[in-house]
Amino acid sequence: MASAPTGLATPPGRLGLSRDGQLLFAARSVRMFGYGAVAVILVLYLARVGLDGAAIGLVLSLTLLGDTIVSLWLTTHADRLGRRRILIVGAALMTGAGIVFAATDQFLLLLIAATIGVISPSGNEVGPFLAVEQASLSETIEGRRRTSVFAWYNLAGSIATAFGALAAGVTVGALRAAASASSTSTAVSSAAVSSTTPAASGRQAFAIW
Questions:
Q1: What is the CATH number of the domain that holds 83?
Q2: With 52 labelled, which of 8, 32, 197, 204 sits at a CA distance of 20 to 30 A?
Q3: What is the 8-class DSSP label of residue 140?
């Protein structure tokens, strides 16, 4: 019986990943979904909290600079400190930055979170994750299957990024439509009240007279 062909046509479920490999795939997919969403809403959010163009540009610049410095340090120390620990530290920094951005609109705090937090304003992979995950993934699979597995690994990240951007875009559009409908309803109600008030006042004045 001929053996099943290998390569990109092999579905992910048949790649023979270990539990660690599956966790690496899942972690990349979830992370890239978040990066895709952040790429859509970050600038909108910063403008919403009152930052001007120069302040937003500074936040984005320090985000990229901080990501570079943090990534360089963490990845060069990953083998000594432990890859699992480095991934946990990177995830903690990313989570902490998200909490700060959601909890405050203070420019200084946002600037600090953007600098040391592992977030992606562009939707691309940042932080120590890619280098550490690829090094770890290569140790969980046989050499002859690495090309195929890495192809699926990258594809999973790209698809997750696209869906994250789509989800954020649809959500922002829905919220804006709801806000616009609410504003229109309020304006119509106010106009109705204004149009009836003079008539009511006139009837009251006529009755008194």
A1: 1.20.1250.20
A2: 32
A3: S
Question: CA torsion angle for 110, 116, 121, 124 (degrees, to 10)?
Answer: -170
Provide the CA 206 distance to its chain's centre, in angstroms.
Answer: 63
Q: Is the pLDDT of residue 183 over 80?
A: no
CB atoms within 10 A of CB 64: 16
77 touches 86 (CB < 8 A)? yes
For tokens 């990024």, what's the residue? Answer: 161
Number of C-alpha atoms within 13 angstroms, CB side, residue 106? 8
Predicted local distance difference test score (pLDDT) of residue 79: 87
Percentage of the chain surpassing pLDDT 70? 80
Instruction: Residue 149: give the domain boundaries.
Output: 17-173
33-80: per-residue pLDDT in tens? 999 999 999 999 999 888 998 999 999 998 888 888 988 898 888 889
Number of independent structural domains in the chain? 1
In a domain, residue 156? The reply is yes
Residue 201 within any structural domain of the chain: no
Phi and psi at residue 128, in whole multiples of 5°? Answer: -85, 0
Does residue 31 sit within a domain? yes
Please calculate the CA angle 86-89-93 and round it to the nearest 5 degrees. Answer: 140
Rounded to whole angstroms, how far apart are CA atoms 81 and 7? 34
Residue 202 in domain: no
At residue 195, the pLDDT reads: 56
